[in-house]
UniProtKB/TrEMBL annotation:
Species for this entry: Fusicatenibacter saccharivorans
InterPro entries the record matches: AAA-ATPase-like_dom (IPR018631), P-loop_NTPase (IPR027417), PDDEXK_9 (IPR012547)
SUPFAM superfamilies in the record: P-loop containing nucleoside triphosphate hydrolases (SSF52540)
The protein's name: Predicted AAA-ATPase
A Pfam family per the record: AAA-ATPase_like
Domain AAA-ATPase-like: 18-208
């Protein structure tokens, strides 16, 4: 049992000791399946606060022959698997935390020598006859042990990308690290001594030099989580169960912390969910473990359409994003799409894989992004916020003429890149226009249009503003009339959140006439039965 080689299970025991632990051991069924195969090279990237280290510690506790973990896993999902005991504590495991290694190594350029020296020293305790004194290369040491004993290793690297992210300008540190990774994992020789390789970090594999070192890895990311989607964050079923156990309003938890759409799963941020269950306070917990300083320079980059896209997403809309151009590093950011893709990997945006759109996932992140935007104010945003507030005031005053004028102004002055051609375009402008409402309302519930009919926005006030602000149901029309819009609101079946809403409700009909290029608005107070 060593620090890097065959660690014990104490790190994972800390997670199990916690008041809230959500069982993610089902992931081990997948890793068991791919042991000693070409699919046994896994890079699982996800944002901070999404349990990367807990997962790495779990895999170490299960596979490491430096401990006995049968009792630890006895009540977890993996224990039901037919091959549970077959692989339990049967392997030589090397577990590295690159972030932790930075300090004892004495800096980024010493990380590779430090890891190699310490790991080889520990390996010599297990295999004293296999390693010559002069062995300095860790890949060579693993190859020598395999040649003499036939033993294979499980390599687990936590924060594998920290040198790629934080030392992007240090060419020597990056080159040494990439060469180290290439020696560990690339080519015929590593297939002889690798039983399983599991890398976890924030960024996917870099699409340049690192790609050549790790292009044999299967990637599971926030863009494409594949089969590992249920193990990246908490699923909706898991959060429902916790909300019931801790007597929390599930719908409130959902508004604040839901939003990461991974494959077919709604995924929640684990740290935030645990915090709200234990503290009972609905607020942003993001800043307690991650700083918005990372995204401030990103959202202030001078790329066409970037600021409009940020405003639109803050208002509750989704925007198209081309994720293919991002090089998975912080140096080669060259477009709006690169910025948005990086923010998806950081967890500041969600991603709809089917529609290829980015969005602000929940109220917690909306607050963090709003703070980031306001920390270095955009000149154009200051005036826009005032115009947006005027629009909200006119809506609450039921002044349809003023609302129509404000929407026209916002479209012409702030969203000129959005050209009207259908009701989708109209809904995009409306999302931007009502940005100021986000201070008082939750992210609007949207029913996307089908054909030329409608695009709904439903604004529900936050609990603290419920007595002062009505719910808003906005119906959009294209080349029709506002009375038809309002009547359709009355005739349609409202969302369940509106049916149960006890405060006032305003019905807002908005139409855009393509021939006159004018907006019309009609606002009525909804009379409940």
């Amino acid at each position: 049992m060593g620090m890097f080689v065959n660690p014990d299970n104490s790190a994972f025991q800390v997670a199990l000791n916690s008041e809230i632990y959500v069982d993610k051991s089902g992931l081990i069924q997948y890793t068991n399946k791919v042991l000693n195969t070409l699919q046994g090279y896994i890079c699982n990237s996800r944002p901070r606060r999404f349990g990367k280290s807990v997962t790495a510690n779990m895999l170490t506790a299960y596979y490491s022959r430096g401990c006995n973990s049968e009792a630890m896993f006895a009540d977890l999902e993996i224990s039901k698997s037919t091959d549970f005991k077959k692989h339990l504590n049967q392997y030589d495991v090397i577990h590295l935390d690159i972030q932790w290694c930075m300090e004892p190594a004495g800096g980024s350029e010493q990380v590779v020598p430090y890891i190699s020296e310490r790991t080889i020293a520990e390996l010599k305790e297990y295999y004293p006859d296999a390693l010559p004194v002069e062995t300095k290369s860790l890949p060579e040491a693993l190859s020598q042990i395999n040649a003499l004993t036939g033993k294979k290793f499980i390599i687990i690297i936590d924060e594998w990308d920290v040198l790629i992210r934080d030392e992007a300008s240090n060419a020597k540190a990056q080159e040494d690290y990439i060469n180290f990774l290439r020696g560990m994992f690339k080519g015929t020789e590593p297939t002889k001594y690798i039983q399983l390789a599991y890398l976890t970090g924030i960024l996917p594999i870099k699409k340049e030099k690192t790609q050549s070192a790790l292009n044999n890895f299967d990637e599971f990311t926030m863009l494409s989580p594949s089969r590992l989607a249920p193990y990246i964050g908490f699923t909706e079923e898991e959060v429902k169960s916790l909300a019931e156990e801790y007597d929390q309003d599930f719908e409130e938890v959902k508004r604040w912390y839901d939003g990461y759409l991974l494959r077919d799963h709604q995924v929640y941020n684990p740290r935030a969910v645990v915090s709200v269950m234990l503290r009972g306070e609905y607020k942003s917990y993001w800043s307690e473990t991650a700083s918005y300083d990372t995204v401030v320079p990103l959202i202030n980059m001078n790329y066409d359409g970037l600021k409009t896209a940020i405003i639109e997403m803050l208002s509750g809309s989704e925007v198209k994003v081309n994720t293919a151009t991002f090089k998975n590093d912080t140096i080669n950011i060259k477009s709006k799409d690169d910025v948005l893709t990086y923010m998806i990997h950081l967890g500041y945006l969600g991603y709809n894989q089917k529609l290829k759109t980015a969005f602000v996932p929940n109220e917690e992140i909306r607050q963090e992004l709003t703070t980031a935007v306001e920390s270095k104010p955009w000149n154009e945003l200051l005036k826009f916020q005032q115009d947006s507030e005027n629009l909200l005031d006119s809506t609450l005053d039921m002044d349809g003429v003023a609302v129509a004028v404000q929407i026209e102004k916002i479209h012409n002055e702030y969203a000129s890149s959005i050209q009207y051609n259908n009701e989708n375009s109209l809904s995009s402008v409306l999302a931007i226009a009502y940005l100021s409402a986000m201070q008082y309302y939750f992210k609007p519930i949207r029913e996307l249009p089908t054909g030329r009919g409608f695009a709904d926005f439903v604004f529900i006030p936050k609990p603290e503003y419920k007595s002062d602000y009505p719910a808003l149901i906005v119906e959009l029309k294209w080349n029709q009339n506002v009375r038809t819009a309002v009547q359709q609101i009355k005739d349609k079946k409202y969302p369940s959140s509106i049916l149960s809403y006890s405060g006032d409700i305003l019905l807002v009909g908005i139409n855009y006439d393509k021939s006159t290029k004018e907006h019309q608005c009609l606002i009525e107070r909804y009379e409940k039965d």
